[in-house]
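Structure, all two chains, one model.
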Amino acid sequence: MGLKGAKVGIIGGSGRMGSWLGGLLEAQGAEVLRSGRSSGLSAREMVRQCRIVVVSVPIAATIPVIQDIGPLVPQDGLLMDLTSIKKPALDAMLRYSHSQVVGLHPLFGPAPESKGLSIVVCPGRGQEGLDWITGIFQKSGIRLVFLEPETHDRMMGIIQGVNHFATLALALCVKDSGFNMRELLDCSTPTFRQILDRIRAMLEQPSSLFGSLLMDNPFAEGSLQTYQQSCESLERIIRGGDRKAFQGLFESLDGFFNKEGETS
Amino acid sequence: MGLKGAKVGIIGGSGRMGSWLGGLLEAQGAEVLRSGRSSGLSAREMVRQCRIVVVSVPIAATIPVIQDIGPLVPQDGLLMDLTSIKKPALDAMLRYSHSQVVGLHPLFGPAPESKGLSIVVCPGRGQEGLDWITGIFQKSGIRLVFLEPETHDRMMGIIQGVNHFATLALALCVKDSGFNMRELLDCSTPTFRQILDRIRAMLEQPSSLFGSLLMDNPFAEGSLQTYQQSCESLERIIRGGDRKAFQGLFESLDGFFNKEGETS
């Protein structure tokens, strides 16, 4: 019995990413059930009716949910998750289920633009499930990025962890600067205004999301150490007034961010 | 003899901000001379022909240029500068000239959009010169932000100094992450892509500009200390896995960046 035509159950199907995936699957002809806060259906009840199950809950809840429903997914079924940290989720899905397993991480925010979407795919177990879900994404024009879970998490330690950390630290520094918002807005440069917009966008999302990206990703701590070292190198150059070293740093960054992109 | 109709000389008039101001003054009917690398006119020769003089050279060159040409500006003339650090420039203009003095800092980049431009005005000496230049800006639809030079520099220690510092430190950390640009681009989230764009935009400008903003602003060092403390507080919370403290931090930031803006 193939997965084509199998019912899909999304745990957290009324959340933002769960809704997005549910809509996409329905548009490709799948029958989708949703459990979640606003539905009357419990996750366990729903999973018993489905051969394909997607876990789309906050990062911190992902492992307990997998532990709970993983054993209920049939061996020829498919278990997937949508969280931003892949190694712990894959490990848990492989451990607590006998089904096929695929880990997914959509590389876009809660309000995806329709063009140029990418999704990270971490194959876990089974070929049919992998072919089914990647086929659906490809039909929807979504670009696939295949990665090992550990490589993914290492990258996200930088792309999400350090990036969010630097923005939050700057936000804290601005708050502690002694100036109020009115004064700061009056004197904003275009790049600072961009930072203020970015800070506001972060603060509109649940703090637990960023807390998880920084605390639950096993590679975030190492990335934060690299960031700390970068801050220290840069500070040393600035404190020493070493303009030649500062210029050298700029040139090496240019080599990485501009030149490397050109040749590859 | 009023300033209206007086010749304006811009030192560094072929540079980006000098060109912008020259064009704006000409559009308002002023006669503008320019000295600079590509003009045959030396700064001293030009200043001798002008009653209004604008210094628009890199920050590190500003004080020496003011020292050189300040004494040549007539007492009823007007000396101005366009640099991003105001206290040292104002101090030098007041010290080396007997003319009227106004410090200016356009709060926009080298390619100003036509709408919503703001400029910081630091009055130095004389009312007529101040009225003349602010009148021209107002006629051009530019919003004026009056500030003490020291207050301006303190704010720019954050708005430019820490902001650029955090971006450069992140750039350095990304470069040292062990991933290449191709891999990073493949896995970029929208906010990370924004950061990459910002880094590339910085690297297109001369490193000396950012070096000066971080090394020549007397208040940048204090701001960098505040940033370091912010990084340390945040790291402590993350290392300790203190999700309650993390949430509290988020809420206090929300109070500052969102709530305060609403009530003012």
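Chain B has eleven helices and seven strands.
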